[in-house]
């Protein structure tokens, strides 16, 4: 089995190749450290691709054309053995920054700095990346460019910082016992969500796993919030009120190293909008593809960065946000 440090080395080499790439050379750069049948998952409208050429044409070449010159501003980097399946996975999270000088998916450029939130999970075998999930917050980019497509959100719209402790880049090996502790806290938190009915209040449920001064860095459309009480008011309360019939489908990868951990699913949840969530009327059941990245402090969680494929969720509800934006 590939060890964690070797896997991290492959992903860092992959990032270095991307840094040197241009729109017309990025396919070659991607092929350097990925397998010929590389399985790549992206948010709406990118979806699933196979191989470096397809990923370049679909995602990286348009992005490198729109945001120039592109910088990766990484805040979190860690690896782990998959607690939800097989293999070694590496997580990278932060922002992709550039001057937004050309259109991207019909989003109109504003010729100023733009920060595209991203989270990646890479499965590494030997010296190759064989599987990737690439999440980015396109609604956040639209909002920065003055094209906010959603109703006023309950949380704050921010260019979100990395960990308060500034220790999220685990380029070197961490104590395996600390990673297991983080994984145990994350799994415990998921268990508390699944058994929420036994708690008298939402605050009581959250206090099992979270510090009182938790930071929840949510996606554009929902926003960021701070403290258990305000999290209940600005995210959990509305979510549980308007989203019903939730079915948990499991995770593709769930990993931890040191004080950091995270997971993603494809899709994590099937949910039904009872009416009103993100401004939509009641709808049919649809998917939610979600990424969570966590920082543990002591025996509880302190920070959580969330990515939700909101454009895909709304598309399944019958609203093509990007198509509507092109026609404005």
Provide keyphrases for this structure:
alpha+beta; Nuclear Transport Factor 2, Chain: A; 30% helix; 328 residues; six-stranded mixed β-sheet; 9 helices; single chain; globular; 15 strands
Spell out the blueprint of helices and strands:
Blueprint: H1 4-19, H2 26-31, E1 34-42, E2 47-50, H3 52-66, E3 67-81, E4 88-100, E5 113-125, E6 128-136, H4 138-144, H5 176-194, H6 202-207, E7 210-217, E8 224-226, H7 228-242, E9 243-248, E10 253-257, E11 260-264, E12 269-273, E13 286-288, E14 290-297, E15 300-308, H8 310-316, H9 321-326
Parallel strand pairs: 1-6, 7-15
Antiparallel strand pairs: 1-2, 3-4, 4-5, 5-6, 7-8, 9-12, 10-11, 11-14, 12-13, 14-15
Q: How would you describe what is shown here?
A:
The protein has 328 residues and is α+β, with helices and mostly antiparallel strands. It has two domains: 141 residues, Nuclear Transport Factor 2, Chain: A, CATH 3.10.450; 151 residues, Nuclear Transport Factor 2, Chain: A (Roll). A six-stranded mixed beta sheet has the order 2-1-6-5-4-3. The protein has a six-stranded mixed beta sheet with strand order 8-7-15-14-11-10, with helices on one face. A hairpin with a 6-residue loop joins strand 3 and strand 4. The termini are far apart. The mean pLDDT is 95.
């Amino acid at each position: 089995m590939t060890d964690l440090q070797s896997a991290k080395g492959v992903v860092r080499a992959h990032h270095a190749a991307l840094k040197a790439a241009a729109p017309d050379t990025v396919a070659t750069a991607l092929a350097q450290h990925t397998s010929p049948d590389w399985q790549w998952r992206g948010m709406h409208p990118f979806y699933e691709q196979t191989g470096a050429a397809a990923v370049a044409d679909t995602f990286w070449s348009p992005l490198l054309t729109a945001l120039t010159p592109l910088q990766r501003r990484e805040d979190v980097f860690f690896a782990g053995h998959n607690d939800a399946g097989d293999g070694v996975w590496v997580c990278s999270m932060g922002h992709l920054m550039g001057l937004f000088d050309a259109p991207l998916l019909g989003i109109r450029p504003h010729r100023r700095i733009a920060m595209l939130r991203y989270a990646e999970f890479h499965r590494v075998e030997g010296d190759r990346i064989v599987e990737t999930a690439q999440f980015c917050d396109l609604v956040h980019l639209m909002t920065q460019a003055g094209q906010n497509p959603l109703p006023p959100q309950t949380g704050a719209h921010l260019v979100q910082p990395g960990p308060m402790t500034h220790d999220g880049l685990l380029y070197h090996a961490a104590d395996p016992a600390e990673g297991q502790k983080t994984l145990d806290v994350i799994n415990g938190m998921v268990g508390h969500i699944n058994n929420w009915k036994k708690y008298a209040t939402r605050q009581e449920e959250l206090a099992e796993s979270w510090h009182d001064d938790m930071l929840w860095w949510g996606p554009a459309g929902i926003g960021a919030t701070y403290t258990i009480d305000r999290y209940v008011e600005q995210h959990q309360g509305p979510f549980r009120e308007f989203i019903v019939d939730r079915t948990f489908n499991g995770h593709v990868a769930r990993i931890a190293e040191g004080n950091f951990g995270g997971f993603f699913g494809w899709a994590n949840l099937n949910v039904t909008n009872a009416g009103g969530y993100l401004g939509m009327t009641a709808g049919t059941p649809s998917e939610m593809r979600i990424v969570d990245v966590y920082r543990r402090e002591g025996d509880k969680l302190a920070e959580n960065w969330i990515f939700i494929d909101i454009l895909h969720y709304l598309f399944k509800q019958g609203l093509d946000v990007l198509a509507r934006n092109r026609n404005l």
